[in-house]
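We modelled the chain as a single entity of 381 amino acids. Its sequence is:
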Amino acid sequence: MRDIIFKRSVQFRDENKNSWTVEFEVYKENSTRRNRETLQEFNQGFSVSVCGSGGMCAGQCDDHIIPRTEGQTKLLEFWKKCHLGGMSGGTVRQDEYLNSEQYVNDYNYFVELFKTYNEHYREQFDSISFQIIVKNFNISNVALVQVRNVIYEKMGNNPIKYILGLSNKSLKHNLSDYNVQCFFLAIKELYVDKGYRYGHGWLYDPLPGNIEEVINSICDLVEEEEDALTEELEAVFDMGEEGFVATGEIIQQVMDLRECDEDEAKRFVALGIHLGCTFGDLNDTFEECPYDEQLYCANGIDYYIGTEDELNNIASDRVHNDGEYEYLWREAVAAKSTTDSLSDWLDSIISEDGWCSVLNHWDGRYEEYKVSGEYICVCRS
């Protein structure tokens, strides 16, 4: 178990109006680490973990977040730099190059340079091809040794075949491939930086001593920006407010404001209670999904919303019409774990496990809310 000394979480909506929850943990971890910039060892008494959830992904999902504000940009910068101490397989100079537009341009230039080679010329990498690389990439005499070693050790002595393959149907290895990265680092005299060979150990950034203050400052700024966005949107009423009651008058108000029917208004309010939103917050992104019944989307996340009978019918239809379930039944029969007919076995999935086990692939749970005298269920898809 981690000895956690600090926790903080923050919720926000990004540029695409997707909702994200990001959690920070600071925990004790006495360790000796190697500095990414100086390559000198240093002692670190704690570490930081950052993870998020939103849209249809969770965990290290920072690449999916499109920042809308200054605070969100700072949060993502902190995440990339401080998660697990900014652990990296490269020095600062190595990572700067691999994250640069120059690396992308170098890779694309290499592809353009040799894509006209037919299978015969790609298969044989000779001194002429090597000199073409040397000349076009201005490889220095110092870098030549690194380049030759990488080509021999990591690319089967043929970088053209390794990167492009033998045909133009698709590239064999793209610029995220470790060996490709080593090759271009070698071209830039960076494969070995200050005696450190790329990818041969973990390097770290020292974490600031006032780490809790830094995290709080970022989260406070993000929350202030979220409050400002909420204030820009017409609140009308707050479905997350303690004591909020979804009366018939509320439903009529939603129908008038959204110009929708009663069924949609009830589902709108049920989700609003579930998420704790104001009308304005939810109204900004709420919409019905066209690819399934009773499926709605808000802030980039899909939800099944409806009465228990409605959702039960959808789950039953899916079970009876999805060939995967018939396959599972045949496997169960073959294993002699059931003597039920296919129809009875499919019915038992709903009767025993419930509709939510079929529709909710996120956490298998649902909540139920009383909306204008009717109970409406909400679950992730």
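As a brief sanity check on the tokenised model: DSSP finds 16 helices and eleven strands in the chain. The longest strand covers residues 19-34.
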